[in-house]
Write the structure tokens for this entry.
Amino acid sequence: MALIAGWAGLALTFPALVLLCALASWGWTRRRPLAALPLNQRLIQGAISVTMIAVVVALAYWIGLGLGGHARELSPD
């Protein structure tokens, strides 16, 4: 979804929503394994996961911009 948002040249609001949804779905699907961890391990694993998901979404948006999202803004009309 972030790739498509970048490709379409949409504002950063849309990949931010994609990131929010990705984090919500990750948190929901990992809630039981995370609950079984001690608090400090839960915080470490959560921080690593949030960082990795944010990096993947940002890279997908950036690749989308490179594939054509910026061309619409630069073309003379």
